[in-house]
Design brief:
Length: about 350
């Protein structure tokens, strides 16, 4: 059953984080829309064509779009699954192939819907997950879908066309459940996947299945304790939602052997970050569990650009000051000679 008319307003606040080089942050509220709706939301995907967010319900098999004003529309409602207490485990947008990928919890079903009409075009059962999916990512080049298991250390690569087909199963050495996942199109494509209970991040070759743990630089033994979501930027850095209270900005040397944690943010009050997503690989947004606020996270690239501009202005000012001083000295010297 597809529902296209607006049915609720969810309270959304967009907060701007201006991050310094330490954990301190400055928060500015951009807008807030109040509502007493009891809907419970999670996950965060971005549709670059329609320019809106896509979120999932954590207490029913429903998916919503959310405008930048905070208006939520129910676009998918699988009422047949609601009978067995089903809910949506994860969502992803494949804007290249115009598909919305939805993973359902108890049944371990992954389905593809047309991104314009929201009509279901394919679904398949994944019993190999042995439980609810943890996260979903898409290879935008060929449309292959990667699904993590929230109970086991496996990632399934599937193709959602026709009846659907299982292409490959990746097994991690550590068999603990997995959560957030992103796919990186490179000369040697790979996925980055997060282990929910430990906060470890693994790099897995999407073709050969070669797996290695991404280690932190410095003294920290764990990158993101109890991490729940990761988002990829165009510069191949990550924004991570960790421990449901921290947002981390991770930067790699390109090999993902080791990464640096550049920004460590403690979310204020009782807010908890439960999802994170980049908007076309640029700005990162995080979803809070308190009144379903959406935060705009100032990424390290923005900070570097700001610092670069400040440094450039300072250098120009210094150069002008030196030039002015030299001109004054020349002028004073000429006056003395006269």
């Amino acid at each position: 059953m597809i529902m296209k008319r607006p049915i609720l307003l969810v309270s959304f606040s967009v907060l701007l984080f201006l991050l310094g080089p330490t954990s301190a942050s400055f928060v500015h509220t951009i807008f807030t829309i109040n509502s007493s709706s009891p809907v419970q939301l999670s996950s965060l995907a971005w549709d670059p064509i329609c320019k809106h967010f896509v979120v999932r319900s954590i207490d029913s098999p429903k998916v919503y779009t959310v405008s930048d004003s905070g208006t939520a529309n129910c676009i998918i409602s699988e009422t047949s699954l609601n009978i067995i207490g089903e809910f949506v485990a994860s969502v992803a947008v494949d804007h290249v192939h115009h598909l919305l990928i939805v993973a359902f919890s108890n049944s371990s079903i992954v389905a593809a819907y047309d991104l314009k009409s929201y009509r279901k075009v394919c679904s398949m059962l994944l019993p190999q997950l042995n439980g609810a999916p943890g996260g979903v990512a898409v290879d935008m080049e060929n449309g292959e879908v990667f699904v993590t298991s929230s109970r086991r250390g496996i990632v399934l690569k599937v193709r959602l066309d026709g009846d659907g087909s299982l292409i490959l199963e990746y097994k991690l050495n550590d068999n603990q459940g997995l959560g957030g996942i992103v796919h990186v199109n490179d000369e040697s494509p790979y996925i980055l996947v997060m282990q929910s209970t430990t906060g470890k991040i693994f790099k897995v070759g999407s073709k050969d299945g070669v797996m290695k743990e991404v280690l932190p630089r410095g003294k920290s033994n764990v990158l993101a304790p109890i991490g729940n979501a990761i988002a990829l930027h165009n510069d191949l850095s990550l924004t991570v939602s960790a421990n449901r209270k921290l947002l981390l900005s991770l930067e790699s040397d390109g090999t993902w052997t080791r990464v640096s944690v550049n920004v460590n943010i403690t979310v204020e009050n009782s807010d908890q970050s439960i999802a994170v997503k980049t908007q076309e690989g640029k700005k990162a947004y995080a979803l809070s569990n308190q009144w379903w606020k959406v935060w705009l996270v100032r990424h390290m690239y923005d900070l570097r650009m700001a610092l670069f501009c400040v440094k450039a202005v300072a250098e120009i000012f210094l150069m002008l000051s030196v030039t002015y001083r030299d001109m004054r000295q020349i002028h004073e010297s000429k006056k003395k000679k006269k």
